[in-house]
Target: Symmetrical bis(5'-nucleosyl)-tetraphosphatase
Amino acid sequence: MTTYAIGSVNGDYRTLMQLLTTIGFDPLADRLWFAGNLVNQGPDSLQVLRYVKSLGKAAVVVLGKQELHLLSVALGYAQLGPDDTLAEILNAPDRDELLKWLRLRSLIHHDSKLNFTLVNAGLPAEWTFSQALTFAYEVESVLSGSNYAAFLENRKQDQSRWHAKLRGWKRLNFIANAYTQMAYCNEQGKLDFKATGPIDSQPAGLMPWYRVPNRLTSQLNVVFADDAHFADSVYAGFHPLAALSALQLSTPTATIAVTP
Model:
């Protein structure tokens, strides 16, 4: 069995199929780890969602920013933007089934045998691995439960810094923001929600989240979606994935991509 991690798909079903053909994916023998953002921007978000769901145990999916946005739009707590391509999902006959399936996905996945951890965006430096799992579960349990609508109604970018005393929606918002929107931070770990682009184009004091010193999860090998386009040099233990690229986790030497 071979396991591949895949960066953001962004609703591009055709290129995803080309990528899976290139890596020789066998759904009966292999496994795919999707680093979130399956949907939006591309023309075939509904087809992507249906396909990945149909893979069953052959696919692991962590939630990304776009999945949370879709869930919020579906409940009327967010509006479709001019570049959103989610209408087909929202109007699909199996809409509710697909949205429920998304709500049951995790924010983090770890495989001790492969020695890899999958997230969509990042992990705060202040969290231990045990805390990362526990905090993710706080959000996951709300999303999968009867109170999920209240959480989505109170989703905000109002928490950019972790404090152990955070409670209620502010606490859940920071956890969700870290897992799905973390990109650049200052040395104290404060999230910058606007910074994106190559590391050498950022103002002094900003760094990719994985370069924050004294990380408490420095022992992990983390694979994540590089939607910020860091263009960083190789950094031990961290494997940023460009959109629609794949990394074979047993031999993580180079990513595989196809031209859309």
Observations:
- The chain has a mean pLDDT of 95.
- The helical segments are 13-23, 45-54, 65-74, 87-90, 95-103, 129-143, 148-153, 168-181.
